[in-house]
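Methods — Computational structure assignment.
A single polypeptide chain was analysed. Its primary sequence is given first, followed by the predicted tertiary structure written as structure tokens.
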Amino acid sequence: ADQTSVSDDTFTKVQFNTEVFDTDNAYDNSTNYRFTVPSGNAGKYFFTYSVDVDSETNSNLDSATTQIKVNGTAEYSPEYFFLSNPPRRVPVHSSVFLNLSVGDYVEVFCRIEANDSSGGRFKTSASFFGGYKLIGV
């Protein structure tokens, strides 16, 4: 389901609520919307994500910023600016390598900045979050 009523200029956790493949049951897709490193699986991980951001008004999206947070702290925060030609809707995506310990948790947040401060929504049906542990590094 789309995540509606996302406030303008506020980081909001993206609620990826459907799982396709989770061998260790490490992703919570119903409450916290986060990946938690299971026991015995500390190491280097690769994560990739895309958030379909919709300002709900044509030519209204000035910028979007995504964040990967580890244990609540932003580790990676790319910004996307559209000031010269603002769209209504755009996917913003990135990937990151992280060195994680058992119990660390990883979440995706996104901030919408609409030129009329109206915020918007995340089209979660067109968004994704995935990752895997790197072996032998």
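Note: The mean pLDDT is 94.
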